[in-house]
């Protein structure tokens, strides 16, 4: 995601990273210079509505194209504040991916005094296909006044998937526990982690990324061990190594 903090917003309500449109002002993109200090952080933010009255309906959208890598876990995080509300409180803010609604924020009866952070799981869209991420505001006509919905600090985080625990036992060729052996685990990014076996020959690795290919090996002063190339879809407690003469 590009410029989730909207810091590239200009006084002309443009941002090269976001496409935007609004009924009243043409664009909901704002900064401190043209809309006042209403952002959560920095100078840029989005201000939905703010029309002079509620006689006419108001609609606005900010959007950009995002791609979530296939097979990853994806989390969308953003901060929103209903700074001004009006009866009958029937405005809403929706978040969509290619038009599919993934989150709806309904107008509260009482205005928010501060921003709230919202987290949405987008892992179902992790397929490597470019999609349009949109924040859409709508207020029907005929309300007693207008609203102000504020949006800031949007992030889209991805990870390689859930983590698992990998453990096992290292023994001599005769099946006796081998202490102080160094077990190595190398992930798909070539990051090496090591664990020292206990007096019972046991070792364990926590927070191992599932679905990745890992290379595991054992170093010992007395014995040789065949390396293993493994991928884990769940925690594994029996990844054992037996020494070779």
Explain what the structure shows.
The structure is a single chain. The chain has 245 residues and is mainly β. The protein has a 5-stranded antiparallel sheet, with no helix packed on it. Strands 2-3-10-5-8 form a 5-stranded antiparallel sheet. It folds into 2 domains: 19-159, Jelly Rolls (Sandwich); 163-242, Immunoglobulin-like. It starts with 18 loop residues before the first strand and ends with a strand. The longest helix has 4 residues, at 32-35. It is built from 1 helix and 17 strands. It is elongated, with a radius of gyration of 26 Å.
Short description:
The chain is mostly beta strands and 245 residues long. It folds into two domains: 19-159, Jelly Rolls, CATH 2.60.120.200; 163-242, Immunoglobulins (Immunoglobulin-like), CATH 2.60.40.10. Helices cover 2% and strands 47% of the residues.
What is the general shape? elongated
Helix content: under 10%
User: Largest sheet at a glance?
Assistant: 5 strands, antiparallel
Count up the domains. Answer: 2
Straight-line distance between termini: 54 Å
How many alpha or pi helices? 1
Based on the model shown, name its key terms.
elongated, Jelly Rolls, 2% helix, 245 residues, 1 helix, Immunoglobulin-like, 17 strands, 2 domains, five-stranded antiparallel sheet, mainly beta
Annotate the secondary structure layout.
Elements: E1 19-22, E2 29-31, H1 32-35, E3 44-49, E4 58-67, E5 73-84, E6 92-97, E7 100-106, E8 116-121, E9 130-139, E10 148-159, E11 163-171, E12 182-186, E13 192-196, E14 202-209, E15 213-219, E16 228-231, E17 241-242
Parallel strand pairs: 11-17
Antiparallel strand pairs: 1-4, 2-3, 3-10, 4-9, 5-8, 5-10, 6-7, 6-9, 11-14, 12-13, 12-15, 15-16
